Amino acid sequence: MTPGLLVRIHRINDSVEVLENSNMTFPFKGPWFAGKDVLITVDPANIQHIVTSNFSNYIKGAEFQEIFEVCGDGIINSDADRASKLKKCYQALLRHQGFQRDSMSITTRKLNDVLLPLSIIYQRQERSWTYKMCSGDSRSTLP
């Protein structure tokens, strides 16, 4: 599934249109030799229903565990009882004042120290490319 998505990444808008036309849920046919046909949903109401209200109705088998073993033994790979305990743990962590304060300061620092300077560099480069395209002059660059 992933290599196929990477090949068609330039047509992502077509995929979004397919999702919108299919009510945000559609069957995905995997390669015939893999036997991985799945039902994909991106509808927030469906995801809310699966993750919160009826989590115990969606039992994950060995095949699911094998596919998502990259995620480890977290909430994604655990069944109802263990997932409920992990959910309480995660909620306690996310509500902790220290975690919220630290995550806010880390995010702010990362934005100011990395993303903002990077966007300035990209703006300069884009101006330079625009000038080159409009003027036809490949020797000049803007500061």
TrEMBL record:
SUPFAM superfamilies assigned to the protein according to its UniProt record, in alphabetical order: Cytochrome P450
Record-linked Gene3D superfamilies: Cytochrome P450
Named cofactor requirement(s): heme
Claim: Signal is one of the keywords in the record: no
UniProt keywords, alphabetically: Heme, Iron, Metal-binding, Monooxygenase, Oxidoreductase
GO molecular function, one term: monooxygenase activity
UniProt record similarity statement: Belongs to the cytochrome P450 family.
Name this protein carries in UniProt: Uncharacterized protein
